[in-house]
UniProtKB/TrEMBL annotation:
Residues at which Zn(2+) 1 binds: 143, 146, 197, 200
One GO term of the biological process aspect: response to heat
Biased composition annotated in UniProt, kind: Basic and acidic residues: 366-375
UniProt comment concerning the protein's domains: The J domain is necessary and sufficient to stimulate DnaK ATPase activity. Zinc center 1 plays an important role in the autonomous, DnaK-independent chaperone activity of DnaJ. Zinc center 2 is essential for interaction with DnaK and for DnaJ activity.
Residues the entry annotates as binding Zn(2+) 2: 161, 164, 183, 186
Keyword Zinc-finger: yes
Gene: dnaJ
Biological source species: Commensalibacter papalotli
UniProt-recorded name of the protein: Chaperone protein DnaJ
Annotated SMART domains: DnaJ (SM00271)
GO cellular component, one term: cytoplasm
Cleaved signal peptide residues: none
Principal localisation: cytoplasm
Length: 375
């Protein structure tokens, strides 16, 4: 059976970046990993196929050869044959280690506390100026009973884990693959507590509600993730804490729309203002206001650019531009006198004096020629 296209295997485009390739690989590998699909030969085959595709596409030289020659580039013992390439198991272990709060290292790997994800919402005006925001979240801290040691007598009193013999990891055969994962007895530490603390069951941790004030910089984009190192959950038995990740959502604004450093604002103007010209006052995102001159005969949709009146640029003192779009409003609920005046205007236009509506005149001239067979 012929091999599937590697891009199709990972569900990515041929223009995908290395970051996108790795993200797609991790997502697929987690789904079909043997630990999650024990006894499923179809998942095992997909897992092998995914790793083979990633082994080629993560390497720029192999990827270039594959883009030019396809699978033929790796026949007869070429660099793509054989599924896992160098570092294949490392990528898998990195992925599952990160999920379990592990950091790669030597024997007796040290665990760090879990990372915490929280979300906060801010107004568009707050994203413009920057703001200090307090976030609340549930976390884990060192156990107050055992001072984080995990031991009832506040003494480490640890011994080598009998399951992994201090390695912190165990290996098992899963079909074609030798899978390495954290030890389930010592959770990767390589040590177990002889006399576990009754309050924390030997973990050295207890739950807490935490508040933290964070600085959200001016110019931040919607969906930005801010990392605060060391503010995640405490690690077991005194090991380093994880990190806090704050996902920032910028709420829509009722007047302004933002695109990067550019601000857009639609301003309604009366028909008479657009026809005769006017000077109108418009709001600015910084809370101020400015005047804009509307020339005589301005059409709906016309844009005016205000330099330096747009959004803050992240980590810069500069600002983008602001665009004002005019929306000419047709009057409603006219008085009798207003109707009379507009009817006079219309009659004047129909008597051959309509020089102010070139687009209308031009269009109906083309329509007349069409019906007369001239076009």
């Amino acid at each position: 059976m012929s091999k599937r296209d590697y891009y199709e295997v990972l569900k990515i485009s041929r223009t995908a970046t290395q970051v996108e390739i790795k993200q797609a690989y991790r997502k697929k590998a987690m789904k079909y990993h043997p630990d999650r699909n024990q006894g499923d030969p179809e998942a095992e085959a997909k897992f092998k196929e995914i790793n083979e595709a990633y082994d080629i596409l993560k390497d720029e030289q192999k990827k270039a050869a594959y883009d030019q020659y396809g699978h033929d580039a790796f026949q007869n013992g070429g660099p793509g044959a054989g599924g896992f390439g160098a570092g294949g198991f490392g990528d898998i272990f990195d992925m599952f280690g990160d999920m379990m709060g592990m950091r790669r290292g030597g024997q007796g790997q040290r665990r760090t506390g879990a990372d915490i994800q929280v979300q906060t919402e801010i107004q568009l005006t707050e994203a413009f100026s920057g703001i200090k925001k307090t976030v609340k979240y549930q976390s884990k801290k060192s156990c107050s009973s055992c001072d984080g040691s995990g031991s009832e007598d506040k003494n480490q009193g640890s011994k080598t884990c009998p399951t992994c013999h201090g390695a912190g990891k165990i290996r098992s055969q899963q079909g074609f693959f030798l899978v390495e994962r954290p030890c389930h007895t010592c959770h990767g530490s390589g040590q177990v507590i002889s006399n576990p603390c009754k309050k924390c069951q030997g973990t050295g941790l207890e739950s807490q509600e935490k508040e933290l004030e964070i600085d959200i910089p001016a110019g931040i984009e919607d969906g930005t993730r801010i990392r605060i190192a060391g503010e995640g959950e405490a690690g077991s038995n005194g090991t380093p804490p994880g990190d806090l990740y704050v996902h920032v959502s910028v709420l829509p604004h009722e007047i302004f729309q933002r695109d990067g450093g550019t601000i857009f604002c639609r301003i309604p103007v009366r028909m008479t203002q657009a026809a005769l010209g006017a000077e109108i006052e418009v709001p600015i995102i910084d809370g101020g206001r400015t005047k804009v001159k509307i020339p005589t005969g301005t059409q709906s949709g016309k844009q005016f650019r205000l330099r330096g009146k747009g959004f803050s640029v992240l980590r810069s003192s500069s600002r983008g531009d602001m665009y004002i779009e005019v929306k000419v409003e047709t009057p409603q609920n006219l008085t009798k006198r207003q109707k009379e005046l507009l009817e006079e205007f219309e009659n004047e236009s129909q008597d051959g004096h309509d020089h102010g509506s070139p687009e209308t005149s031009g269009f109906f001239s083309k329509v007349r020629d069409f019906f007369e067979g001239k076009s």
